[in-house]
Amino acid sequence: LGPLLYGLDVIVYIGIFGIVSLSLNLEFGFTGLANFGKVAFFLIGAYTYALLSQIGIPFYVCLIAGALMSAIFGLVVSLPALRLRADYLAIAVLAFGEILRLIVKSEYWLARGDWGIRVFPIFPWTGSHLIYRLENMGLVYLFLLICLLVVQLLANSPYGRAMRAIREDEVAAEALGKNRSKFKAQALMLGSAMAGIAGGLYAQYLQYVLPGMFMPMVTFTVWIMVLLGGPANNWGVLLGAALVEIFDRGTNIIKDYITLPIDPTNLQYILFGALIIFVLLYRPQGLLRESAIKTKALRSAYNGRSSTENKRS
Amino acid sequence: MTSNWAQVLFNSTITGSLYLIGAVGLTLTYGLSKFPNFAHAEFITLGAFVGYFVAEQLELGLPLALLVAFLVSGIVGFLCYRGIFQPLAKRGASIIHLMVASIALGFILRHSIGAIWTWKPLHFTAIWSAFNAGPVRITGLWLWLIFAALALSLAMHLLLMNTKIGKAIRASSSNPELALASGINVDRVIWITWFIGAGLAAIAGIFRGADTQVWPMTGWDIILPTFAVAILGGIGNFYGAIAAAFIIGLAENIGVVGLIALGLSTTYRIGIAFLILIITLIVKPQGLAMLFRRA
Q1: HEC readout, chain A
Q2: Which residue, A157, A298, B170, B262, is most buried by CB atoms nearer than 10 A?
Q3: What is the pTM of this model?
Q4: Mutate which: B98, B278, B284, vs A, most A CBs within 10 A
C-alpha cells in the first residue's frame, strides 16, 4: 500500500500546484505580468482558510473567503503595480510576499508565529490513509477542473485575445481601445483568487499552516512549472506541474535509498535552478507551444482563402 | 524612555554605508543590463563566506579577506553574466525571462554555498574593540565599514568621472546604441561592471557577516533594502544610490525607535525599506535620479 499512498500524495500535490500554475499562466502566460509574489496569495488563502476554520465555519465558506481575501489583496497590489514596468512590478510583488511572511511570523497572536496552527480536516477520519487521500484528491481535482475550465474559456474568448494583445504590445492594445489597466487588474485579481483557493486546499490537506511553508521557493517552483510546461498553454502548465512535482517528490524518496556526497535538499534546488536556466536558454517556449487562436472568423477567412485558391487553380 | 539620538544617527551612518556598498553593484548592473539581478543577494552571501574562510579559517586577517572576497565574487559575477545572462540577452530573452534566470541563478549559488559550508550560521570570532565617544558606542568594525564606504564613494566617483572606462559605463548606461556607434565596446563595459559590482557586494557581505552572522541567507536578508536603495537612488545612478542608502539607513534606525515605542517587533525594520520602495515606485519611479542629472 505504501507506493500507492505515495502516488496519491503526489497526485494531490500536482492538483494543488496545478491550480497555482494555471493562475500564474493567466497572469504571466496570457497577460504578461511578472508575478514574483505568487506565494503571498497562496499564503493569504491558506491562512484565511486556517483561521476561519478554527472558529467552526464550514469549509466551502472558508475556501471562498480565502479566494476573496486573496483577490482583494491582488487588486490592492495591482493598483500601484499597473502603472509599473515589468521589473518594478516583479520587485514590488516579491517584496510584498516577503513582508507578508514576516508579518505572519512576527504576529504571534494572529497564527502563533513560527509554531503555526492546526487546521481541521474536512473529511471525518475513517482510520484509513487511502480513503483520506482519495477524498482529498476528489476535492482538489474538482477545483482544478473548475479553474482549468475558467482559464481555458477565458483564454479562447475575445477577452483572452485582448489579454494576449496586451502581453505582446500594451501600447498597441491600448490604441485599439483595450483598457490595459483594467485587464491587468482583473488578471491579477482572478489569478490571486485561484491561488487563494489552492492555498486553502493546501492548508486543509496538510492540516497545518506555518510561515516556513511559504518561502519564495514556492513562487519559483510555480514559475518552473509554467516555463517548463509552456506559457500560455494550459495543458502545458499542467504537464509542467506534474513533471516538477514528480521530480520534487521523487527525489525525496530516492534520497532515502542512495547516499550522495552532497546534501540532497541543496542538490534539488541546484538542479531546479539549472533546469530553469536550461529551459530559458534552449526552449523558451516550453514543452508545449502556445496553441494558435481558433475563432469562427479566422476559420471562415481561412476557408474563404483556400476556396478562392482552389478556384484559381 | 529617551532615545540616544546621537547613537541613532551613528547607527544610520553604519546602516547606510553597508547598504551603499551592497547596492552599488546592483544599481550599476541594473542600469547597464536593463534587468534587476536578484542573484545580487547571493554575491553578498558568497563574499561573506569567502571572507569568513580567509579571515577565520585561514586566519589571514580582514584586509586580505576583503581583497580575496572582492576578487572571487567579482569573477563569479563576471562568469554568471558571461555564461547565463549574455547568451540569454543575445537570444532575445524578455526582461521577465532574465529576472527568472537571475532568481534561478540565486538558488544555484545559495544552495551551492549551503552544500559547501552547510546551513549552520557561522560567526566571525575577531574581537572588535568597542569604545565610547561621548554618548556614542563605536566598534572598530563599524569604523572600518564607514571607511570602506567613504573609500568606495571616492573611488567610484573618480572612476566614473575621470577614467575612460567610467565614461564608457555612463555612456553605455544612458544610451547603449549610441555608445556602440561611438566605438565603445559595450559588452566589455558590461563585463567590467558586473565584475566590480559583484566584488563590491562581497565587501558588503563581509561587513554584514561580521556584524551579524554568516549563513546562506546573509544576502537575501538584506535584499529589500538593497533594492530599495537602487530604486530610490534611480536605477544606474551612483550618486543617487549614495543619497538613497543614507536616507534608508536613517529611516530604518528612526523606524526601529518608533517600532519599539509602539511595542512592535523590530524584525519589521526591513518593512521600512519596503515602504520606501513602494512609495518610490508609485510616486516617482525614476527615484532621486533627477537630482543628479550629471551621472
Answers
A1: CHHHHHHHHHHHHHHHHHHHHHHHHHHHHHCCCCCCCHHHHHHHHHHHHHHHHHCCCCHHHHHHHHHHHHHHHHHHHHHHHCCCCHHHHHHHHHHHHHHHHHHHHHCHHHHCHHHCEECCCCCCCCCCHHHHHHHHHHHHHHHHHHHHHHHHHHHCCHHHHHHHHHHHCHHHHHHCCCCHHHHHHHHHHHHHHHHHHHHHHHHHHHCEECHHHHCHHHHHHHHHHHHHHCCCCHHHHHHHHHHHHHHHHHHHHHHHHCCCCCCHHHHHHHHHHHHHHHHHHHCCCCCCCCCCCCCHHHHHHHHHHHHHHHHHC
A2: B170
A3: 0.87
A4: B278
